[in-house]
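#help-structures

NK: newbie question. if I give both the sequence and a SMILES, will the prediction place the ligand too? trying with NAP
OV: yes, paste both and it writes out the complex. here, I ran yours:
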Amino acid sequence: MMTIGILGAGKMAQMLVPKLVSGGHRVIISNSRGAQSLQPLIQQLGSGVTAADPQQMLAEVDVVILATPWEKTPAAIAAAGSWAGKVVIDATNNRRGPRPEDLIDIGDQGSSEVIAKLVPEASVVKTFNYEPIPIFAAGLPAEGDSGAIFFSGDDTQAKEKVAQLIRDLGGEPIDAGSLAEGGKLHGMGGSLSLKLKLLAPKEAKVLLSSVR
Ligand SMILES: NC(=O)c1ccc[n+]([C@@H]2O[C@H](COP(=O)([O-])OP(=O)(O)OC[C@H]3O[C@@H](n4cnc5c(N)ncnc54)[C@H](OP(=O)(O)O)[C@@H]3O)[C@@H](O)[C@H]2O)c1
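OV: that's the protein plus ligand as structure tokens.
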């Protein structure tokens, strides 16, 4: 059992909370408006989840899911305090919405490489970013053949922790490689993104080796 923090309490957080709780974990959600503003949502989400201000949330957990809008993320990270030693699961994307014109130009680097520079003393693992939220909502836990979940990162221990978390949610973790390589493959617009379903693990591995 882990306590997982989530920075952001919107659609991504609300999709993940019940799955994390069913997977045996406790969750602390946070937003910019303060813990009090989240009380109605806490009531709605049920047991296993509490709300805290970002600083308190960060101080209490080892693993934090980033689920803030791209343009709000740098300020959200800065306001939360020290990220040293944390595992940061980056679910963000550099976009304002779902349309092609909503993409925010960040040059050649992958979006999680940008995030990693904002939390240099933390270990960033990218996942849950590459399909619309309803696809993860419907596909986890997977029925029968587990739904493949791509993840990427540079820290082996952090990746093992996140892989176990993915299994706890009923998915099958598929290591797409480093943040630079894998992160781009399952970044928005990458060859592993927007299949509009969770692939079966075999299918995901074949696709991964074909695009590397
Ligand atoms: N929508 C999708 O299908 C999808 C799929 C994959 C990945 N993503 C990515 O996931 C991330 C979250 O998306 P979402 O759809 O969950 O967004 P959302 O519903 O708009 O929720 C964003 C949350 O972030 C909070 N927030 C904003 N500024 C903050 C700050 N400075 N400090 C702390 N919390 C702050 C907001 O609350 P307050 O404003 O009250 O602070 C809100 O709870 C985005 O980066 C998005 O690109 C989305």
